[in-house]
Design goal:
It contains 16 helices and eleven strands. With 472 residues, the protein is α/β, with parallel strands linked by helices. The chain is elongated, with a radius of gyration of 26 Å. The relative contact order is 0.12. The structure holds flavin-adenine dinucleotide.
């Protein structure tokens, strides 16, 4: 297969509608407000300030020169890591509260990445806290390590629940390791993660009954409790009240399920006041289909068409049991949605023009985004076989209507054609101004990693590269 055979620019065939023949209300193209990194930077500054504020009481309570021996130092390190762990646990839960401001400024995918990275730090802090305190106290009380653990469990209030909390966090932390995460079904992983709330509750008491800085009533103790209440309020708002309001207002239900390919379907949804949903192409919702087998599962899927006032659409590749069941959805099935989430949108670009690179079902969010990008965008769509190209006719229509260049790059990653296209020279040849564009990548992790490497070698700055790997 030659280079020319595998590429096609802006072909127009088949349907003359961007919506596969469906009508949509004439919604004026949104004058997309650009969403810069200001909010994100402010949140990062708040995070570091919070960390300093969490450790400051220990610093102020510890007179200079009071840490004379090894046991003193170990105990002090145990207390500091305890304060850090307590703070990080609150931040971890806050990041998953799905409060609108966090989702808008940081984005669900980035929050999840941060949550995963911070989770590892939290686990290290918890284990360090536990071991340093045991070793430090054993030294102070002249006991063996086992004797000290027994003494902590038997003589100190709330310590049994604190040990259980540490155990839960260890299990949850281990499921965050990529190799373990990818072999677990999404739902099992998700429900295991929900037990982190139990860790929050179980770990709460020992901080106040035994924590040197939090034991005494005063501003430090009050501030720490206020932190807990704030996180609790964010959880109730983001996880309960805001979704309740959204779903009562829009009452989404399945309108139609359409096969896009043997293993991919599009689900069309209708509802009330759809033109009032503040959503952007490239964003995703967590969807819960309220039928017998589906109501207890909530899975993330991106919008595959931009807002049009009449219906929403998601395009789903069958990869496991839940996605397989979605093929049998009946029109009229009620849908509970949480979102929109994500900063993988045209509004978050830094340059006027964009290059989109999609692999497989990764075309879904990019297809929606294409309607909101200014004319002149370019799309490279990687697929193994011509049959794997989804929404081909819609893309061809958009190529024409939105003056978008579309290249279908067919073949396995080792075929000469795709290899050449996904090289710095190939990218530059297709899109000569690639370094002056924002690049949006969505697809399997392998394709995304390979494309990032090629783009970086081409000279595209990191801040212009936006990633979505469908992994939370
Ligand atoms: C932000 C976000 C947006 C998403 N948008 C879309 C979308 O628009 N369209 C879409 O089809 N999917 C999308 N996904 C992926 C989708 O959520 C999962 O495919 C789905 O939850 C799998 O559920 P399951 O029970 O069928 O499979 P599971 O039992 O959870 O997984 C079955 C197997 O498939 C693997 N797997 C899971 N997801 C994928 C995947 N995307 N590609 C290849 N293998 C996978 C798992 O590792 C596992 O081995 C998105 C994911 C995220 C995080």
């Amino acid at each position: 297969m030659t280079y020319q055979d595998i590429t096609a620019t802006g072909r127009r065939t088949g349907t003359t509608s961007p919506y596969g023949g469906r009508s949509a209300a004439p919604v004026p193209p949104p004058g997309l407000p650009r969403r810069g990194p200001g909010g994100r930077r402010a949140l990062a500054a708040l995070f570091w300030l919070g960390l300093v504020a969490a450790v400051l009481p220990w610093w102020l309570d510890t007179p200079a020169g009071s840490l004379s021996g090894t046991t003193d130092l170990l105990t002090a390190a145990g207390r500091i890591t305890g304060l850090v762990a307590g703070y990080l646990l609150l931040v971890q839960v806050l990041m998953m509260s799905r409060v609108g401001a966090l989702e808008r400024w940081v984005g669900g995918e980035r929050l999840s990445r941060l949550h995963r990275d911070l989770g590892a730090t939290l686990l290290v802090a918890v284990l360090a806290h536990l071991s340093l305190i045991v070793v430090g106290y054993a030294g102070l009380e002249r006991k063996s390590l086992f004797g000290e653990v027994g003494s902590l469990l038997g003589n100190y209030e709330d310590m049994v629940s604190a040990f259980v909390a540490a155990g839960i966090m260890l299990v949850v932390g281990l499921t965050g390791i990529r190799a373990i995460r990818t072999v677990l079904p999404y739902e099992l992983w998700y429900h295991l993660h929900l037990t982190s709330y139990a860790a929050l509750l179980l770990g709460f008491g020992h901080q106040f009954s035994n924590g040197a800085q939090l034991f005494e009533p005063g501003p430090v103790r009050t501030g720490w409790i206020a932190g807990y209440l704030l996180v609790l309020a964010a959880l109730v708002w983001g996880r309960v009240l805001a979704p309740l309001h959204f779903n009562l207002r829009h009452r989404l239900q399945v309108a139609d399920v359409v096969a896009e390919s043997p293993d991919t379907i599009s689900i069309y949804l209708t509802g009330r006041r759809l033109n009032q949903i503040d959503m952007l192409g490239g964003q995703y919702f967590r969807w819960r289909f309220l039928n017998v087998g589906g109501w207890w599962q909530s899975h993330p899927f991106s919008l595959s068409a931009a807002a049009n006032g009449r219906w929403l659409r998601l395009t789903v590749k069958v990869v496991g049991t839940h996605t397989a069941d979605l093929r049998d959805l009946r029109p009229g099935t009620r849908v509970w949605a949480e979102g929109p989430s994500g900063t993988f949108t045209a509004a978050h670009r830094t340059r006027e023009r964009a290059l989109l690179i999609a692999g497989g079902s990764g075309i879904a969010p990019l297809r929606a985004m294409l309607e909101e990008l200014p004319p002149g965008a370019a799309l490279i769509y990687r697929a193994r076989n011509p049959a794997d190209v989804l929404m081909h006719q819609e893309l061809d229509w958009l190529a024409q209507a939105r003056q978008t260049s579309v290249w279908y790059v067919i073949g396995s990653r080792n075929d000469p054609g795709p290899r050449q296209v996904m090289s710095p020279e190939g990218l530059r040849r297709l899109v000569p101004d690639v370094t002056r564009r924002d690049v949006y990548l969505c697809g399997p992790a392998g394709l995304v990693d390979e494309a990032v490497r090629a783009l970086r070698r081409t000279g595209v700055p990191r801040r212009q590269i936006h990633l979505a790997t469908f992994e939370l």
